[in-house]
Amino acid sequence: MLDVANLKVSYGQSEVIHGLNFTAKKNETLAVMGRNGMGKTTLFKSLIGVLPLSGGSIHIDGTDISKCESYQRVENGVAYVPQGRMIFPNLTVQENIETGMGVSKLKAIPDDIYALFPVLHEMRHRKGGNLSGGQQQQLAIARALVTNPKVLLLDEPTEGIQPSIIKDIANVLNEIKKMRDITIIVSEQVLSFTMAVADRIIVIDKGNFIHEDLRDDVDTDKIKGYLSV
Amino acid sequence: MGGYSYGELGAIFAMQGFSGISLFSVLLLMALGLAIIFGQMGVINMAHGEFMAVGAYTTYLMSSLTESFFPAFLPYYFILSIALAFIVAGAMGYLAEYVLIRHLYSRPLDTLLATWGLSLIMQQSFRSIFGAREVSPTLPEWLLGAYPATDMIDIPINGLFVLGLTIVVTLGVFYLMFKSSWGLRVRATTQNRVMSGAVGINTKKIDRFTFALGCGIAGIAGAAFTTIASTGPTTGTLYIVDTFMVVVFGGAASLFGTIASAFSIAQAQSILEFFISGSMAKVFTLLVLVLILMFKPEGLFASKVRR
After folding, report:
1. Alpha-carbon distance A126 to A90, whole Å?
2. How much is the ipTM here?
3. Residues with Cβ < 8 Å from A109, sequence gap 6 or more?
4. At B30, is the secondary structure helix, strand, or coil?
5. Mean pLDDT by 10 residues, chain A (229 residues)
């Protein structure tokens, strides 16, 4: 489904992602773990096209999207939930979701979105900026889902969110995977969350992948060692 | 205000108020376009006044053509030229965005300079094509004259027409911005350009059409302007400063603010002009404006949300 080969990203002269290779299959949830500053967000931004690649290629279902602009990548089936949510603060909840519907040509917000996130239905006429952090995270996921993505990218969805909501978000991700044929790629620092959602875990360090394991074979102490500061 | 009776004062206020409404209409149409463009892409369009002049000259051209070739059509041409002013100014705006402005988006000071240069080029083109003398279209009969409301109060019909036109255009802009899916995309891009791209909005296309729309509305302002004054090459420059004032005072992100500030600035100037000289009226308005902006730096209506 998603096929990344020799991906390189640079800020000016300094290369921060050094030729990453990975593939993610349909119905697979892949977690990218790593400490702060190791390149998780940079990797995600380059996948959605906010940052340009300095080398390598990204294929979705065989289509090369590495030269596309963000909106074209969304048209090709990538959806992005950024770190810090980045919902539109002055638009209502409903309008926030509708911004994603231009791509999928949906006329109305599908019922299954509100079924996943009942709180968004309750608050649909409020401004996005007046929601709590956890609600904004749900809104950002809903906005990404209405583009009918093949690959859903979530950059640190648990950052700054209260623990009870973190569990909800894990449940939602598992629910989404059951409902749709979708690849989910999530970056994380919270191991318990990762263990609840991921099929496969990759550890990133200084722009390189240093460890990869299926969830069922994961040695949690080893991963904790990679994540400790 | 010595020497006037209460009745006379009332009539003065009413009549100056109505002439203020014409000024309000032109300022509002100009400010709407400017605010949409500034809000959408952070470009301060110094050439906005010239796009208004484009609309005014289009109207003048239409009037001359009608007079020489289809004199029978004279009573109706004005409606058509409003639409044409919108199209011509909008098309030129589209072109300016495509050729010039899109290359400078990340450089706000350069866009300021570039659009200022564009305004100089356009002014000189007007001078070369239409001459330095001010021109006026022949207005249709039904736009002339005044409606005598009382013995002392005359309401000019052109003012009423311009007001009606402004209301229609403003409602149209509101509908586009707040009810259409296009408007939703514009508002999303205004708030977070990068994220809008990442939810699948083609922000560059939105930019181009927004710029064209803003310039088109300035064109309509120009057509309306011909009913209250004559058009010269520097007409646009005379109005651009007031328009900037309206946008800043109203709060750049708020359409309601733009309306309220256009109304208060136009009325203050028009009523004060009667009692003190025109330039003193401007000084006084500016002073009050500066004072208010010191206490409300984001303008009259800034929306409040968590960021």
Report:
1. 9
2. 0.89
3. A94, A97, A98, A101, A146
4. helix
5. 92 91 92 91 94 93 92 94 92 94 89 92 93 92 94 92 88 91 92 92 92 87 84
**Whole-angstrom distance, CA of residue A77 vs CA of residue A179:** 16
CA–CA separation, B40 vs B35, rounded Å? 8
CB-count exposure of residue B60 (10 Å: 0-12, 13-18, 19+): buried
Distance, CA of B233 to CA of A188 (rounded, Å): 61
At residue B99, what are phi and psi to the nearest 5 degrees?
-80, -40
Residues of chain B with pLDDT under 70: 1-2, 252-253, 302-307
Cβ contacts of A70 on chain B, cutoff 8 Å:
194, 197-198, 200
Phi, psi of A115 (to 5 degrees): -70, -35
Q: How many CA atoms lie within 13 A of B202 on its CB side?
A: 10
Report the distance separating Cα B92 and Cα B57, nearest Å.
Answer: 13
Give the integer Cα–Cα distance in Å for B79 and B208.
26
> DSSP letter at B71?
G
Q: Which of B198, B200, B306 sits opposite A102 (nearest CB)?
A: B200
CATH number of the domain at A132, please: 3.40.50.300
Alpha-carbon gap, residue A197 to A43, rounded angstroms: 20
CA-derived radius of gyration, chain A: 17
Query: How many other C-beta atoms can be found within 10 angstroms of the C-beta atom of residue B294?
Result: 8
Domain residue ranges of chain B, discontinuous segments joined by +: 24-295
Range of the domain at A18: 2-227
- Would you state the structure tokens that stand for residue B41, as one six-digit string? 């892409």
Q: To probe the interface with B, which of A68, A81, A83, A99 has the most B CB atoms within 10 Å?
A: A99
* Contact call for B200 and A74, based on CB within 8 A: yes
**Overall domain count for chain A:** 1
In angstroms, the CA A17 to CA A129 distance is 33
The pLDDT of residue B304 is 57
Q: What angle do CA B183, B189, B192 make, to 5 degrees?
A: 140
pLDDT of A193 reads: 92
Instruction: Please tell me which residue of chain B has the smallest CA distance to A85.
Output: B195
Q: How many whole angstroms separate alpha carbon B14 and alpha carbon B4?
A: 14
HSE-up (13 A, CA, CB side) for residue A188 = 27
